Amino acid sequence: MLPAAAALLGAPDAVDALELTEQVGDVQRVAVVLVDGMGWHLLPELAADAPLLASVLAGEVGRLAELACTFPSTTPTSLVSLGTGTPPGEHGILGFTVKLPDSHRVLNHIFWRDDPAPGAWQPVPTWFERLNRAGIRARAVLPAHFIGSGLTEAAYRGAQFHATNPRDDYAAHLAEEVATAPGLVYGYTAELDTAAHVFGIGSGEWHTAAANVDALLTRLVEALPSDAALLVTADHGGLNVPPTSRVDLDADPRLAAGVHTVAGDPRVRYLHTADGATPDVVAAWSELLAGRAEVYSRDDAVAAGLFGPVRPEHLPRIGDVVVTCTGDTAVLATGYEPPEVARLVGMHGAATAAELAIPLIAFRG
């Protein structure tokens, strides 16, 4: 996505693999807005409360294409894949949570600040940095509490940050930045994903969030200068997980046997095992979750290309065993995670089409 946006702006070495130039023509300004949780398969249901998205689906405005996010289909991984234009095995943000090498401590990338140091933990240059080196302005309009976090540095390093507060008019801030100067402007909204997690996809709260997102995008489209493009995408899709589809590894000693640290998220689990226990853990989980999950050793998961090519220094961040759920199964880890994780209704992270497929919507001013 960002290499294609950079190519629109004339950045050297930027490849427009999405053929955006043919869609939007010659532009001097590009706004990229990521709507957290706006999966491709959710668009028809979203359109019921979203006139702009309904018009896009009807082919009346904008250009719509289907893309895929990287695996795991979780926000930290996807944001850094977006920012760097590389797969997770290259940039190293390999899950919602990962175990720190040589430690039993688990890093939650959402609450990460400066330990480990972002530049060392995620070493790949971002497209914000690359645009700056090319003399093209790159800005990010983000909630104030995002700025200075490890994840923000990993994904958007090099951007000129513009902080907003909850009471601010976010659409006006984005539109003003686009109008102020040529270059790239990035924006992000989490309202839809939060409603999906807390209340469920299809809930009244989720539909209200859909209407709010649509109103934001409508204002941006209406404010686009004639030499600007707006690109709207997502970081993942999602699905609701019913109570009957939840498995708690801490409630079943057969699943807990041989496991000393658990990371990942309920749809993709990284299991770090005691010495020599990996084959037995793979066998036990394969038997007990047959038809509900794919179970890999680390070597097999890497060989299958789940993460793209993996740098050797990033390998320990992946569990000795990787469990990726199929259908609507989720693996809880109540002994390792805060209780609110088990209360989530909507989830994502695995490799199903419902979680990986995301839209790209292109508008021209």
Task: Characterise the protein shown here.
This protein is α/β, with parallel strands linked by helices and 365 residues long. The protein is 34% helix and 23% strand. The protein has helices at 2-8, 20-24, 43-46, 51-57, 75-84, 88-91, 118-121, 127-133, 150-156, 170-180, 191-199, 204-223, 253-256, 278-288, 298-303, 339-342, 353-356, and strands at 29-35, 63-68, 97-99, 106-108, 138-143, 160-164, 183-189, 228-233, 239-240, 246-248, 259-265, 268-273, 293-297, 321-325, 330-332, 346-347, 357-364. It has a seven-stranded mixed β-sheet, sandwiched between helices. α5 (75-84) runs parallel beside α9 and α11 (191-199) packs antiparallel against α12 (204-223). It is globular and about 60 Å long. It starts with a helix and ends with a strand. This is Alkaline phosphatase family protein.
Q: Could you report the average pLDDT, rounded to the nearest whole number?
A: 97
Write down the Rg. Answer: 20 Å
SS elements, strand count: 17
Strand order of the largest sheet: 2-17-8-1-7-5-6
